[in-house]
């Protein structure tokens, strides 16, 4: 009988989980869609490269959307079971709330393993692959990093402004380039026209400027101006395979845990924070499961819309707590281990408390407070209408 019951409960979870994965992933990607569409329409980037970009962007998003979707799935699944009085029927057969834990915990373990695979393999692959692809696109289309009438800082140590830009011909008009790659002699270049030329072999880009002037500050407080008819300015592009310039989000767990000799203390701290953060996020699947079961059962009469709203509220609260502890870790107030795992510990304790309350058939304060606030608000509105 228990196997049939467990299979029945387990089948309630996958559908809302997949819906949550698609919804949350789409919401996170929405902010990138406009930029990607602009790259296709205005910059002429091939559609295939844009599809590759989306593929590289997905793993870092999945690291967050898997726990989020799991929370939503548990809320909706147990909210449906409770709303149809099936939880009550199970209890009348002598099955306690603790006896209903195996199916959701099994699904949470599957989600945690998927999240762990994403954080160990897919996230470094996605972040480093996206960076390499952007370098390849910049090499094949020099104007991809430049926008007209905007101060562009896509090149390290440089700010580029152009009044007009023809992305197809790779030509510019009204060009200003402020070059601080050598901080001892900052240089500002003005040119009436210019062209962008890529050099993939040397992993660089060249600004071919015409009819302008170079303004340079000298070390002794002097100033020099040189006028030119033609001037070529070469800029080295970042190499996506260069390990020295890689961000912590592009590193594997082994690289985070074993920094090379001579690494600065600030970099070691950032690596340790990233390491514990990546391991803590898969464990949050169990935390969200324990938290969602009592909330879903006691939210039985409010429907799917309320379940979705409740999941958003819990997620926001969790990630605000995550951000707060991460800030404490960056400042050195907490060691990386505590900074990474404390949010899970806080919400695990909260989930255990709510689960015990629900198992003892006690009404949670949050759900008893809501009707009172609703009635008080209605009373004030009715008084206002009478006046």
Secondary-structure map:
Elements: H1 2-11, H2 14-41, H3 47-83, H4 86-92, H5 102-140, E1 158-166, E2 171-179, E3 187-199, E4 204-217, E5 223-236, H6 253-257, H7 265-298, H8 303-331, H9 336-359, H10 365-386
Antiparallel strand pairs: 1-2, 2-3, 3-4, 4-5
Helix pairs in contact: 1-5, 2-3, 3-5, 3-7, 3-8, 5-7, 7-8, 7-9, 8-9
Give a written overview of the molecule.
By secondary structure, the chain is an alpha+beta fold. The protein is built from 10 helices and 5 strands; from the N terminus they run αααααβββββααααα. 61% of the residues lie in helices and 15% in strands. It has a 5-stranded antiparallel beta sheet. Helix 2 (14-41) packs antiparallel against helix 3 (47-83), helix 3 packs across helix 8 (303-331) and helix 7 (265-298) runs parallel beside helix 9 (336-359).
Tally of DSSP β-strands = 5
Question: How large is the radius of gyration?
Answer: 28 Å
User: SSE order in H/E notation?
Assistant: HHHHHEEEEEHHHHH
Q: What proportion of the residues form beta strands (DSSP E)?
A: 15-25%
Q: What structural category arises from helix and sheet content?
A: alpha+beta
Overall pLDDT confidence: 81
Tell me about the largest β-sheet.
5 strands, antiparallel
Largest sheet, spatial ordering of strands: 1-2-3-4-5
Query: Percent helix among the residues?
Result: 55-70%
**What overall form do the CA principal axes indicate?**
elongated
pLDDT < 50 runs, ≥5 residues: 240-244
Instruction: Calculate the terminal CA-CA distance, rounded to whole Å.
Output: 62 Å
SS field, number of helical segments:
10
User: Which oligomeric form is depicted?
Assistant: single chain
